[in-house]
Every structure is written in structure tokens, then in C-alpha cells.
Amino acid sequence: DLEVHFRAGGLPLPGRPTRLVRAVNGVSFTLAPGEALGLVGESGCGKSTLGRAILRLGDLTGGAIRFGGADVATGGRDGLARLRRETAMIFQDPYGALNPRMTVGEAVAEVLRVHRKVPRDQVPARVAELLTLVGLRPEHATRRPAALSGGQCQRVGIARALAVEPKLIIADECVAALDVSIQAQIINLLIELKARMNLALIFIAHDLAVVRRLCDRVAVMYLGRIVEEGAAETVFAAPKHPYTQALVRAIPEIDPDRRLPAELLGGEPPSPLDLPPGCAFHPRCSFAMPECRAGLPPALRPAEGRFTACHLYPAIPARS
Ligand code: SF4
Ligand code: MG
């Protein structure tokens, strides 16, 4: 039931009404070792805020996070230390995430020394091993980010993430800035590493085609809430929520027989400062009914692992 609310425009002043940004609004999900969850939705729907909140890189205002049994949201220093030891994040901008003055070797070594306390004499061998693991060569260790391509930089970002020996990696739009052919290489690398190391992966992306290739499950976010969740195969083949249906229809389909009529979403999502009442998707939904404005849709879990929050589907009591 994670919640991230913050005040818009800084500290409250006398005479200035505080306005609350409801960026993440009661999100719940579980993730198993070795499983990849795609977190999708248009930009501004809270995906990055949620990802940062899970790793405690951003503040939470409510809810709990259990990581391997430990409460890391409210568990204080121990919980935080555990998160830092066992999780890592991969960012969108492969150049921006690296220090331009450090060589690749130094950037990876830094993580090994700080997070893994690897003895100094063992660092070079471990750096070479990590670079090889992500498809670079040990010789890349002496280069600086400016001498690398975007794809190579992202491999360094992944090597840094793996240096932590994480159980969970959160990747936020980590291929969005790369050319399509390079994207495929990085995705294949993540698929391979996930299987080899039994990594849990939260893959934040607005590109559903990429999520379909990489992820076992998908959670669709709209204005701070998960509106649909399930096995990636099922959600992409038979989306239930009108928002997911629109997103799935917008995926470019190469095979003309499988192409659905494009029904692109009109306009932008409303601001999280002024959430529409009821189902927040109702102003853009072609199925909207009076009850959609009146109240939140029931959170349905008709089957294990499948979830839809929409008034179109009759409430089925949760299984006990
Ligand atoms: Fe559309 Fe109503 Fe379902 Fe929201 S609850 S997605 S407005 S049909
Ligand atoms: Mg984002």
C-alpha cells in the first residue's frame, strides 16, 4: 500500500494553499527472485517515483516494503543498509550516470570497494570479470565515458549495478536513450543475467514492446495506481482495463494480421495535483459510466496474479 505524496511548490507559506501531489497512491505488488516485473504507463504516472521510493532513494509517505522478510520502509538504518547492499538501480541516461572524470575501471571499482568491501588487490580481477560479464573487454577499464558509445556506457552502468551482487535491480527506462539495435543487445543481456543470477528485476518503461520481450509480469500504472497486473503474456494478449487496451493497441505490430486498429490515447493524463474523482482514467475513457466518476473501481483479484481495477468488471470476492 505504498504512498508517495509531496507538497507542490516547496514549503507552505501563510496565505498560500498547500497543494498535494499524489504521485503514488496505494500501490501493492509482490516480486519473486528471478522474476522480472515491467512497470508501464505514460510518463508522469508515478513509475519512476515508485521505483525510487522502493529503493528508498526518494521519500515514502505511507505503506510498507518487505524485502526478504525485513521491513525496509520503516526498519530504520538496518533496513536501509540492507537495501543498499542488496539492490541497485540502472538509469536512463548512460552518460549522465557515470562520472566523466573516472575511467570505467575506477567507476566499477568504486562500487566494489564501497558496497562489497572487496580487498584492494582483488579489485582489478573483479573489474575485469564484471566487464566481461556485460559483454565489454577488460581493456575497456582504462577508458573514460566520453570514449564509449551509449550502449557501452549502459553496459558499464549494468556492471556497476552487478558489482553490488544485488538480489533486486530496478532499471528505469534503461534502454530508452539507445538505438533500437543496441536496445535489443542490452535487453538480451538483462534476460541472460536475470536467469544466470536469479535476479529480481523491476523494469520501468513506456515501451511495451520491450517489456513484452523481457518481463514475466507487467503492472500498468495510471496516475499513481496500478490499474492492471498479470502475466505479461496474458496482459498483452487480452488486456482488460481500457487504459491497458489503449496502450497495447498502440504497440507497433509488424505482422499485419495481428495488427489491431490503432486507438491511440487522446491527450495527456491529468495532473497528479488535480486527480479526477472516482476512476482517474474516466476523462479519457470511452467506456466511462456514471459510477466511474462516483467511486474508485474495485480492486479485483479474480485469479492469482491477475488484477484489474475497473468498474466494467463485476466485483469478485477476494480469495481467502
Ligand atoms: Fe473506464 Fe470506468 Fe473502467 Fe475507469 S472504471 S477504466 S472510467 S470503465
Ligand atoms: Mg520516469
From TrEMBL:
Is Nucleotide-binding among the key words of this record?
A: yes
Q: Please report a single Pfam family linked to this protein.
A: ABC_tran
* SMART domains assigned: AAA (SM00382)
Q: Where in the cell is it found?
A: Cell inner membrane
Q: Which Gene Ontology molecular function entries are recorded, alphabetically? A: ATP binding
Q: Which PROSITE patterns match?
A: ABC_TRANSPORTER_1 (PS00211), ABC_TRANSPORTER_2 (PS50893)
Keyword set, alphabetical order: ATP-binding, Nucleotide-binding, Transport
Q: Which residues form the ABC transporter domain?
A: 1-248
Q: How does it sit in the membrane?
A: Peripheral membrane protein
Q: Which family does it belong to?
A: Belongs to the ABC transporter superfamily.
Q: What is this protein called?
A: Peptide/nickel transport system ATP-binding protein
